[in-house]
Amino acid sequence: xxxxxxxxxxxxxxLFSSPxxxxxxxxQILFFVAAVLVAQTPPPKPAGANPPAGKTTPxxxxxAAAKPATAATALTEEQKTIYAxxxxxxxxxxxxxxxxxxxELVKRALTDAAANKPAVDLNEYQPKIQALGQARAGRVTERxxxxxxxxxxxxxxxxxxxxxxxxxxxxxxxxxxxASPKATDTxxxxxxxxxxxxxxxxxSYKRKEPAQFALNGVIKCWTEGVQKMKVGGKAVLVCPxxxxxxxxxxxxxxxxxxxxxxxxxxxxxxxx
Length: 272
Description:
Blueprint: H1 19-40, H2 77-92, H3 100-114, H4 122-125, H5 127-155, E1 161-163, E2 169-174, E3 186-195, E4 200-203, H6 204-207, E5 211-214, H7 220-226, E6 234-239, E7 259-268
Antiparallel strand pairs: 1-2, 2-6, 3-4, 3-5, 3-7, 6-7
Helix pairs in contact: 1-3
């Protein structure tokens, strides 16, 4: 299983779960973006470029304005990569829970940095970023826990749902006819993971490739829940945050989030 995919255990959490490592990676990304913007900034006109008094120079024709990339305009591979860079920056800002107005401030800072005209002294305000991130992350976690509690209460009452002693909610969608795995087994599955608001954060279906991993090497919810399945079956696991990624979350998963997984158990064993 690709280590960037879920449902890895919390001990394998990526760099963004650590505020200090988050800031270090953000600095690297933003430095690169600023460098790109500087490279795109037109150079100043050289001294003496103005025509002598009394003479006029015909105005050069204005180049056609570049059309913004839209769904109808195909992006080149390089443009797609740069676009992905923007997505990466936005994901890294997730724990700061920025409002639309605050996102505009971030955009302004990128532009100011490219022009070498920052509005504040970075040496003065950079040490305050970690504290802001921690405070905002706590706010996100509490909000997520409130939404998760309401979802868990409702999910436990759905027909066919079984709530275990750990808090896992298990619902069989399609019964299997094969064997059930043990915690020490390796399984092959197709799955889709969503948040309580329906946002999809991972899907083996979209990757068009089943995932294979040891059941004792993933989050607790999966270790417990997949053992209840039989090969050929399909089930839904509703995982409270303490059985998933806890208050730390992951890059695309808020702290305190309840996760919903639709899982098809395809086979058991590394050779399958």
